Amino acid sequence: MFSPNQYGRIGCGVGLTGIAPLPSEKPILRLEDILDNIDRIQRYTKDLDFDHFLLDTQCHDAVERCLLRISEAAKKLEGMVDLILPDQPWVQIRAVGNVLRHDYDEVDPTTIWQIVTTHLPPLKRAVETALSKLRSDEPGAQ
Fold first, then answer.
1. What's the rounded Cα separation, in Å, for the pair 15 and 109?
2. Is 28 within 8 Å of 134 (Cβ atoms)?
3. Which of 22, 66, 112, 116 is the most exposed place for a label (fewest CB within 10 A)?
4. What average pLDDT does the segment 34-61 reach?
5. Percent of the chain residues topping a pLDDT of 70
6. Domain boundaries, the chain
């Protein structure tokens, strides 16, 4: 199958080094990633109730993938995002990715649905506010 020696990090052309990722030098891009994936989740789940979400495995899989991306972006912003948006549960957001990656067979759809319906809307508002502030603080911003 796929081996790190043959493909490095598949898709990005970077070899595996065993070095932990450094916080992102691009906080605006990472926050945009979070916002984009929240928007995708909201598009995918629009007009769905929990029962229909459970039946739609393609939607369920897509939502989990977006949650993984949100978690990864939060991980790359570690430390920085805690200062920019201290009122958000970043430890839990990062932890969701670990569960989806490593304990995928124990993921509770009820918890995923609760994240989608209860936790993502306030995260989205907070990220939008932070992005607006960061963009206005950029050199050359009006």
1. 35
2. yes
3. 22
4. 97
5. 80
6. 22-136
